[in-house]
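pasting for the record
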Amino acid sequence: MAFNNLILDASAFYSGVLFQSGSKCYTTYEILEEIKHIHRHFSLITMAIQSGNLVIHEPSREIKKKVMHMAKKTGDYSRLSTADISILTLALELNFPLVTNDYAVQNVGKLLEISIKSAGIAGISNIRKWITVCKTCRKNYGSQIKICDICGNKLTRMHISLKIKKDSG
């Protein structure tokens, strides 16, 4: 990847992007917490921080609200971790490409017009809105409901294409 600056999600660390890209990389404390179990590489990550090749940055709380709003709009909010929200917020704030293999992160990132790069996999091509549907009575629900309030059946998660309309908040 030939970029001056990159934002790294946990999946980018697992894919070795930090050591292969030659870019200055940024991440959040939440992502570091998520990957601390990879002990064999953590000393290299520490060296990258000390050398300035990896910058740990705390993103803006104000921008975080916009990210959470958009995640709810796509129906991905319940699928995103605190670390996912933090890295999307950082990418939106710094306006650098975000490297992630997480489809929910990619989906929200594309809606926020963040440049998304995948590491070793095909990324998403379309923005999707996730809904839950009762296959028995066909009632549509938001993405976080699990049981139909009419017939009591388990709901199925489905996606629909999301029409992009510029949204200020």
